Amino acid sequence: MRCRSSFVFAVLLGSLATLACGGPAVPEDDTVCGLSFTDTGTVRVFVVGHAFTLDDAASLEHFDASFREDVVRIAPCLSATRPNLLLFPEDAGLIAWFTGRRAMLARGAGSTELAFNAMYSGWFRAADEYRRRFPGISAARSLTLALGDPAWRAMEHTFGGIAKRYGVWVMTSANVPYVEARRDSDSVGLFRDVDADGNEPAYVATGPECFNAALLYARPSLRRGRARPCPDR
What predicted TM-score, i.e. pTM, was given to this entire model? Predict the structure, then answer.
C-alpha cells in the first residue's frame, strides 16, 4: 500500500492540533452501576472491550485517558467485599509504541513497513545504541528494545495508576524487554522519550531479549509478570 502524501499531511495537522489543544479530560466516575453481571464467586472480574484508535496515541495523556474512560463506568460496580480484577485487551502495549511526537510520522503511515521505518527515524539513536551493546540483534529487535521506554512508561502510568487509584487488580500485556529505571544524564538523554516529564527515569533494556508479557498490577502498583519470548520480525 502506498502512503499518500495528502493523508500524511492530514494526520500531521490533526496531531499538531491535538498537541496544541492540550491533554484530554477524563470524565468523572459514574455514580450508579449500569452493568449487569452474575454476582457470584470470590473475585469480581471485569473484561474490558477497549477499542484502539490512533487518537489514543497522540500523547501519553491521551493513551491514559482512553483506558480510564472505560474505568469510569466500572467504578460504581466494584465490590467492597471481594477483590476486583480488570482484564484489558491483549497487547494493550502495542498502541503505546505509537505515542508522542517521535511516532507522529509512524501514525500517519499507510502500511506496516512504512510505519516502522518512520518509527525508527524517531528512535534511531536508542536503537543503534542497543545494536552496539548487543551485537548480532536484528534491526527489528533493536527498535523493540528502544520502544521499551514508552511502552513501560505507559504501562506503569496507566495500568499501575488505575490499580492504585481504585484499589483493584489490573491485568494487561505488552511486548517489552526487561528494563531498569535509570536517572543518569547519559541514559536519560539517549533512551528516554522526549515527551516524558523531567523527573521520570529512562527505562533501559538490560538484555537483548523481548517478551510477550502478561502484566498484573495491584495496589500499590505491585507488578507481577508472566512472559514468553516475542517474535523477532
Answer: 0.82
